[in-house]
């Protein structure tokens, strides 16, 4: 077990760090703690990004940052909490405004209006809006590290599959569009004219392509992106992690490491409280299983704290466990 | 010398009649029956999509319509008609030009314009019924086989007698690839590309003429020039397959573009040559009238004459272009006459000038190759004389070859798509496969070619072509009756064409049946097949033609019956007072 | 095409030019336009497939492109739903 600091030293090209795993296991805490460590202790510009309004960065940093863009909560430490619903609403309004402007319409044709409205409430829109925001930050390239607290859907792994499909789709559309433009030019040549106007659609497509392509390239590049699973020493969590590992394999990805969270100190095994003693014993059993099953993958072990992990000083505490090789627990 | 005995007289009288048809009869019909209203929006305006539906000026559309309807028909038909002498041929051409030919093109165009720009199939469906459309589909499949057969036959024979035209054709294909590349990939200026392409064509003619290898007939089985049993069929079919399989812009689009120029030059040259004939001293060599009987192969004057001169007089193909293509681009209703009637009368002129080229020679046996020889005789005196004659022959032979090849490649593609439509999803879906269908489309016609009997194939083709025209004319009549308008100007020619063509097809079935059952050779060239594979093979080839003819006849009769029913329905409805 | 000329000769020149274009090039131009239309419709389908009941990818980026497809939606639907007849396809 090497700890995250050593991992990042060994993988010096890493730009993006993604924490995945079920909700409530401490993904957000890990993201925030790592970002805190890299920004405050190592002086790197970090962006910590979250979409999950339940385990929110707002809580951890004790500031309302939801839907407010990039907020600097400590030197070099920037935090974003996306309000996907708001983003979708703005996006939709943008599309409608564009239609009205492009065609000088007072009202959007009802058929199109209702098409847009139904699209807006599709569940996939929520995910897409999130990914788009991530891709946008990544494409801007302002930070040394991007730390993403993945939303809990599908272990966040689906995002990768989606990025790939999406960029294929954009490539196909772009090809079709280029062909269409080519034929326009041929028709113009035959008529003895020239086409001068640039295709606006192609411009949009190139923009999407650039963003998605960059996102996908970074995400699929082992050297640039690290995926960490966060788990707890419990049966359910072990099963989930096994499943996630299979999914990773299917997508041709490698899991960079596993963080075991909420571990009770082993010394509590002798605690007079039967409940605690049993829990510790159970955890130790599962920790053995974890070592057996994912031994090489475990990079950090974070103990259960006596307080909620909130505030910068507490994050510093968590970070110590996260970035250093675990001592025996 | 006697001016009345020259092609001049034919062309001059013909042109006069055409002027009468355009400024007299067609104008009267236009005003009285269709009553074009410049304010009524045409489909081009109603459904504008900038692709299929968009308004185009009348000159452009006239040019397009003419280019799309012009093919081998008007050039070759008169040759067979000369079996009966030049007078019947001439009379039928001007009679049809005045009363039938433009009536079909123009009325079909107007019918579609008044019906949302619908094409022939949906119009048949709407006005006659669902069965009519199915019959039409089957009919068209065989129709295309027969066009392919007739045209491939001509190309093979012409190339065999004028090998120079093959090398020119090769130049055309190469020029087409180059032009396609320059226009579509490099996007060079179209004028520059055109100049280059025309230069290549001229070089092709000169090189072909000087090269003139191999000698005529040397690639022919049996060694007799002018036989369709020629190995030239192989490269020709390969070029056709390339055309129908490669993407349009690679070969067909540029090829049709380049081929347009020699066609226009040929038409002008023939017209001038014919009009100058009193000065050049070229006289009519064919007797005015040879009798009503004709030969065993052709059958009597009626119906043979009326199907022999196909597109130069009237052609069903044109109704396919008028509906569904031109009708969707007509700007205003008042353009229908210049486009529909104007283009057809120009096509009639092609037929007329072709007749002028045919009548100056009196060959023993009718063959497609007489045309370029006659055309050379007619034109050479005003275009460089003896020295230029070989080049002029090459030029007129490629005129025929180009006219055939350009339409054949388009038909090849069309056939392929229709086959896919007919057979996809059935147990015979393999027939709809791109490659299988393409090969079938050009190889099946070879079976007709092997009959060796150009006249019979041509009459089959003409019969189906004119029958389609009869359908179109009658469908127009059904519509007019529904609209409570006078329909006789279209109905009478329609019924006449249907009866005549069905009779012609029936007669040809009879000819092929006799040939099959009595193990007879239809044409001396079939001797080659007989020697190579026995009389059974000859019978099989002729029997194939019987089968196709019977199918065409049955489809035709069924359609005829449906049309008559639709007519009486329309009449009954028209008699009833409006509710 | 070019601006209108006046006078008998000018008009004649225009007419000859247009007839020439019509004979030589018009069918090639419409052929090219048709191919272009098929591509355009494919493009529209990829963006608006949902409108015809064909499930398409997440609509997020489609919506961004939607404004550009509006002019062709009508002809696209017209064509999609219209029965294509074999007599419609003679010239491609």
Describe the structure in your own words.
The complex is a heterotrimer of chains A (329), B (579) and C (92). Chain A is of the alpha/beta class and 329 residues long. Chain A is 54% helix and 13% strand. In chain A, strand 6, helix 9 and strand 7 form a beta-alpha-beta unit. The longest helix of chain A is centred in the middle third of the chain and has 33 residues, at 158-190. The model of chain A has no long low-confidence stretch (mean pLDDT 85). Chain B has one domain (3-570). Helix content of chain B is 72%, strand content 0%. The N and C termini of chain B lie far apart (69 Å). Chain C is built from three helices and no strands. Chain C has helices spanning 7-24, 26-48, 59-81. In chain C, helix 2 packs across helix 3 (59-81). Classes of the chains: A alpha/beta (329), B mainly alpha (579), C mainly alpha (92). The B-C interface holds B 47, 49-52, 56-57, 59-68, 119-122, 133, 136-137, 140, 190, 248-249, 253-254, 256-257, 260-261, 264, 320-321, 323-325, 410, 413-414, 417-418, 421 and C 1, 14-15, 18-28, 30-37, 72, 75, 78-79, 83, 85-92.
List the defining traits of the structure above:
A: alpha/beta, Rossmann fold, eight-stranded mixed β-sheet, 11 helices, C: 92 residues, 3 helices, 70% helix, 0% strand
Q: Which range does the strand content of chain C fall in? A: under 5%
Helix-residue proportion of chain A: 40-55%
Mean pLDDT of chain C: 78
Mind summarizing the main beta sheet of chain A? 8 strands, mixed
Q: Tally the beta strands of chain A.
A: 8
Q: What oligomeric state is this? A: heterotrimer
Please identify the structural class of chain A as seen in this structure: alpha/beta
Question: What characteristic shape of chain A results from the CA principal axes?
Answer: elongated
Structural class of chain C: mainly alpha
Low-confidence stretches of chain C: none
Assign a percent range to the helix content of chain C: 55-70%
Question: What is the CATH fold-level name of chain A?
Answer: Rossmann fold
Order of strands, main sheet of chain A, comes to 3-4-2-5-1-6-7-8
Strand content of chain A: 5-15%
How many domains make up the 3D coordinates of chain A?
1
Number of E-state strands of chain C: 0
Q: Can you tell me the CATH superfamily of chain A?
A: P-loop containing nucleotide triphosphate hydrolases
Provide a count of the helices of chain A.
Answer: 11
Q: Helix and strand succession of chain A? A: HEHEHEEHHHEHHEHEHEH
Could you tell me the radius of gyration of chain A in angstroms?
A: 24 Å
Shape of chain C: elongated
